[in-house]
């Protein structure tokens, strides 16, 4: 089976980035030390070259991910090797999350790329929870990361057929926390809103679907593909939570044009390298802040604070302000972690250079 790479997003301008004696391929799925790629002559398994492994050991963001364009080479024994990852136009990166010595969550300045070269980021939030109707804080976080990735966020309120009353009010609440972002109600099983979603994927555009388990991401991908390309499961009875059906990220080509990346459910998404994403999501607060009496106002009791005045009048919900403060603190903390890591790397580099120089002059004196 052959592929027209232009329908996968390949452009002639990318050819200049290809190393000699390699051909382009798009990463459809990754495994440990290897990737399934789509080249002009079909699907291949390509193991990572030594250069790729070394780069990823230094910085996990350099690790090949779904959506990447890569240079592959056929080796004499007939297998393929992934020689290099080509420059990304966009990258959805989340901060690493691990466990500290006390068992709590701790951030990591090294990020993880969830998807690359994505035009549209579909943020899927189920309309029906056991405790509330939508996690507005999660929507704010994912939309901020979507803006930061370079892609265009679109919020999809899924399983809208299960929402009996107040759907318009729910959509209004979501639009309020995602200014400037398209928000749509979708019922993949009923086919409602699916055609509208597919309209974002004309030609060779690529989308990634992000959201919690049980949000109906795989069901939406199946509806877009017109068939069962991803396994699905029902939401667990009792707690309303979804099961992790999708355990890997995968690039799916759609029969009507465009590509979509399905992802496992996301429990927690840490910010990484955040600069403008939070400002765009909280444009309402940023606009209020410009009206404060003092340019360096912290919105924490200063006189003439327009943000606190909006809070007191009810114009600004307290939940929204707390969410903004939380993401601002996290973004600042991740930035400080990155600076500390950079300083540590520079110190190690100069320590190594100094050691080499001392050895060199010591040997010269013998």
CATH class of the largest domain: Alpha Beta
How much helix, percentage-wise, in residues? 25-40%
**Major β-sheet strand ordering:** 10-9-8-11-13-12
Class derived from helix and strand content: alpha/beta
**What is the overall pLDDT average?**
82
Instruction: Quote the distance from N terminus to C terminus.
Output: 66 Å
By CATH, the topology of the largest domain is Rossmann fold
Q: Please indicate the percent range of residues in DSSP E strands (runs of 2 or more).
A: 15-25%
Q: Please mark out the parts with pLDDT under 50 across 5 or more consecutive residues, or reply none.
A: 97-109, 235-244
Helix count equals 9
Instruction: Give the total of domains.
Output: 3
Tell me the series of helices and strands, N- to C-terminal. EEEHEEEEEHEHEHEHEEHHHH
Give the oligomeric state of the chains in this entry, treating copies of one chain as homo and distinct chains as hetero: single chain
Rg, Cα atoms, Å = 23 Å
How many strand segments? 13
**CATH superfamily label of the largest domain:** P-loop containing nucleotide triphosphate hydrolases
Give the CATH architecture of the largest domain: 3-Layer(aba) Sandwich
Shape: flat
The major β-sheet equals:
6 strands, mixed
Cofactor: Zn(2+)
Pfam families: RsgA_GTPase
Subcellular location: Cytoplasm
GO molecular function: GTP binding; GTPase activity; metal ion binding; rRNA binding
């Amino acid at each position: 089976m052959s592929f027209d790479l232009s329908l996968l997003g390949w452009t002639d301008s990318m050819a200049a980035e290809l190393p000699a004696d390699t051909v382009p391929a798009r990463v459809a799925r990754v495994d440990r030390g290897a990737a399934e790629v789509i080249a002009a002559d079909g699907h291949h398994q390509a193991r990572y070259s030594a250069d790729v492994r070394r780069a990823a050991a230094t910085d996990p963001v350099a690790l090949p991910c779904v959506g990447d364009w890569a240079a592959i080479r056929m080796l004499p024994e007939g297998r393929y090797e992934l020689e290099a990852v080509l420059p990304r136009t966009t990258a959805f990166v989340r901060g690493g999350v691990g466990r500290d010595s006390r068992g709590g969550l701790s951030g990591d300045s090294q990020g993880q790329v969830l998807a690359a070269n994505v035009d549209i980021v579909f943020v899927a939030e189920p309309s029906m929870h056991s405790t509330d109707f939508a996690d507005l804080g999660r929507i704010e976080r994912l939309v901020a990361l979507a803006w930061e990735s370079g892609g265009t966020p679109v919020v999809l309120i899924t399983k809208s057929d299960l929402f009996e009353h107040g759907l318009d009010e729910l959509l209004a609440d979501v639009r309020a926390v995602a200014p400037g972002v398209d928000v749509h109600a979708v019922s993949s099983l009923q086919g409602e809103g699916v055609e509208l979603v597919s309209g974002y994927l004309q030609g060779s555009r690529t989308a990634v679907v992000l959201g919690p388990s049980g949000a109906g991401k795989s069901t939406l991908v199946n509806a877009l593909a017109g068939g069962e390309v991803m396994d699905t499961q029902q939401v667990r009875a009792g707690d309303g939570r979804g099961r992790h059906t999708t355990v890997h990220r995968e690039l799916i080509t759609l029969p009507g044009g465009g590509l979509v990346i399905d992802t496992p459910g996301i429990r927690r998404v840490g910010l990484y390298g955040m600069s403008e994403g939070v400002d765009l999501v909280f444009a309402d607060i940023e606009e209020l802040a410009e009206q404060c009496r003092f340019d360096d106002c912290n919105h924490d009791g200063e006189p003439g604070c327009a943000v606190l005045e909006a809070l007191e009048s009810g114009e600004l919900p307290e939940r929204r302000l707390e969410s903004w403060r939380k993401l601002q603190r996290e973004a600042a903390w991740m930035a400080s972690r990155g600076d500390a890591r950079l300083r540590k790397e520079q110190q190690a580099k100069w320590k190594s250079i100094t050691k080499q120089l001392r050895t060199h002059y010591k040997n010269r004196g013998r």
